[in-house]
Amino acid sequence: MHNSYARLTGSLFAVFLGMSWSAHGQGGPVSVVDGDETITVTLAGRSNPVLVYNKVATDEASKHELHFTRSGYIHPLYTPSGKVVTGDFPADHKHQHALFFAWTKTKFQKRNPEFWNQKLEAGRISFTGVVDGSIVSSEDMGSFAVEHLWEDLTAPDGPVPVMKETWKVTVYDVGKECHVLDIESIQEMLGDKPLTIEKYHYGGMAIRGPDTWYSDEKGASPPGSIVTDEGLDRIEGNHSRPKWVAMSGPVEEGGEAGVAVIPAESNFRNPQWVRLHPNKPYFVYTPMVEESFQIIPGDPYISKFRYVVFDGEPDEGLINSEKQRMAED
């Protein structure tokens, strides 16, 4: 199912890169700045960015074991008032890096690389470059595209390239009520062998919230909350198939804030299952909960998610309106 969509969307993506993006100049209300270590997107008139994409390991990485080092992810993610709603290198799960994509149990060339649990040193995901001509700053949106390399670290003769992943990140100027961005991921096999994503209860497009949404006290209720479009909490909603998930709670800067993640209707096995952790501030869209699948050479795996970042508590009407707007885009 995902393969025919992949061919169409991949072709459209290439056309979009070659035509539409080159038509936009730099500057404008949505500013995308490509630096040596990061890509930063900012809306005019706001002191804080919308997001920071990390092209290299952050300073925080040097404080932890080498195998937890990661590039190619978004952190921090900010609300309109400048509150941070993502966490990186949390003490309980150092392998969780804010907005990140990682498959867990996989099979490749009779080996079993794993890209989620970095402590196993069985797989690696790294930023490799910015797509030429992809940086856009314009009146109502800003975009960039970056490439990631996925490597199998279990081969006896050293790392083996498995696939190339392209992220297209688009930030929209929707006013002061919230920040809205899309991440489209295109995963393409580099050789002639498939990658099998095995049946498992987590793995995929994930988000980790800040430490203020978590308590390590035994038996304590999490300070942060997770809720689905059906009103299910982190326990009842686990492995359900929601139209969106929102996570929120108190933030270090004061007050409350949160983020909702909306999957595209065109995603493989939509609506996908979600892993909602019972006490930690993270969740992940997980299409292999009930059955495995393969990413086949020549047929990229494509998925897209919209993020609605807000101050205060989740607004169901706001999130649903962004879901509808996403379906109409």
Question: What report would you give on this structure?
Answer:
This protein is mainly beta. It has a single domain, classed as Beta-galactosidase, Chain A, domain 5 (Distorted Sandwich). 9% of the residues lie in helices and 37% in strands. The protein has helices spanning 2-18, 316-328; strands spanning 30-34, 38-43, 51-54, 73-77, 99-102, 106-107, 123-130, 136-137, 141-152, 160-172, 179-189, 195-197, 204-208, 225-228, 245-250, 256-263, 273-276, 282-286, 293-295, 301-311. Mean pLDDT is 91; it is low at 3-27.
Could you outline the blueprint of secondary structure elements for this entry?
Elements: H1 2-18, E1 30-34, E2 38-43, E3 51-54, E4 73-77, E5 99-102, E6 106-107, E7 123-130, E8 136-137, E9 141-152, E10 160-172, E11 179-189, E12 195-197, E13 204-208, E14 225-228, E15 245-250, E16 256-263, E17 273-276, E18 282-286, E19 293-295, E20 301-311, H2 316-328
Antiparallel strand pairs: 1-2, 2-3, 3-4, 5-13, 6-12, 7-9, 8-9, 9-10, 10-11, 11-20, 12-19, 13-18, 14-15, 15-16, 16-20, 17-18
